[in-house]
Amino acid sequence: MATVVISLVSTKGGVGKTTIAANLAGLTAGLGLQTLLIDGDVQPSLSKYYTLDKTATTGMAEVISSGGLITPAEISKTNINNLDIILSNMTDATQNWLKQREDRLILLKRAVRQPIVRDNYDIVIIDTQGATGELQRTAAMAADLMISPIKPDLMNYSEFLSGTMEMMAQLNAMADLSAELRSGVLCLLINSMDRTRNSLGVAQAVRNEFRQHPNVRLLDTVVPASTVYPSARSLNTPVHMLDKPNGNGRSGYEVLHHLLHELLPHLKGMWVDGTQASETQVLGE
């Protein structure tokens, strides 16, 4: 299987990018897929998500400053089997330096195509900052698939339309210049869905807008609002290990498997520990 690169992108902070990145990676690692997390955020929340068995001497700052070169010195090992991570040790200066590079848009694409990644990992998952910037753009260009989580409220929806969608339009406007400048498929994920009237209304507006959108893939899977996600984070544990099937399709185990199977259909039928659950999607109505 060729290495699949998934980037979490959004110009809005606090929408759950890091939570989705960490838990998807924990799940793919649990399925036996060699997985590499890349923390592309200057605020290194992902770097602190899992306990480390081995801490690398360098990290993303060196990957960026070298023009996209990844060496064993940048790869840390978590205490989760099959899960490694490139930690964020970046500052605002790293992003300012990146702005000066003519190859900034393809820097991470170059990085994840290297033999050290291609020959050793099945899945690469890149987390990004919650703002428009060069790190966000180069992560988008590196991806086969992008996940943009959106919380179902008017502020987050407005920011997605004016921020993330505008950024993607700018990036894809350059696709005619070179195939290297074409970003991955943008997948829109409704995240932290509760059952209030406001959330239900915004979620329906999102579906009406993007169900048939030519440039956005609206995912059927919906991540419900639940205290289990911060609980898993505090325990440095993938949510699928903490929140087992409960019969209503809303457990962390079920939701994360549904999301992975929808993103990568060739993995459908693979369940951690063989504990299968219904493939019926949680739509959040």
Strand content: 15-25%
Provide the helix percentage.
25-40%
Count all strands and give the number: 9
End-to-end Cα distance: 36 Å
CATH architecture: 3-Layer(aba) Sandwich
Low-confidence stretches: 281-285
Please report the first level of CATH classification, the CATH class.
Alpha Beta
CATH H level, superfamily name: P-loop containing nucleotide triphosphate hydrolases
| CATH topology (level 3) name | Rossmann fold
Q: What do the pLDDT scores average to?
A: 90
Output the strand order for the largest sheet. Answer: 3-4-5-2-6-1-7-8-9
**Global Rg:** 18 Å
Backbone structural class: alpha/beta
Number of helices: 11
Give a topology summary:
Elements (H helix, E strand, L loop, with lengths): L3 E5 L8 H14 L4 E6 L11 E3 L5 H6 L10 E3 L4 E4 L5 H8 L7 H6 L2 H4 L4 E6 L5 H9 L2 E6 L3 H19 L12 E9 L3 H14 L5 E9 L3 H7 L4 H4 L9 H12 L22
Parallel strand pairs: 1-6, 1-7, 2-5, 2-6, 7-8, 8-9
Antiparallel strand pairs: 3-4, 4-5
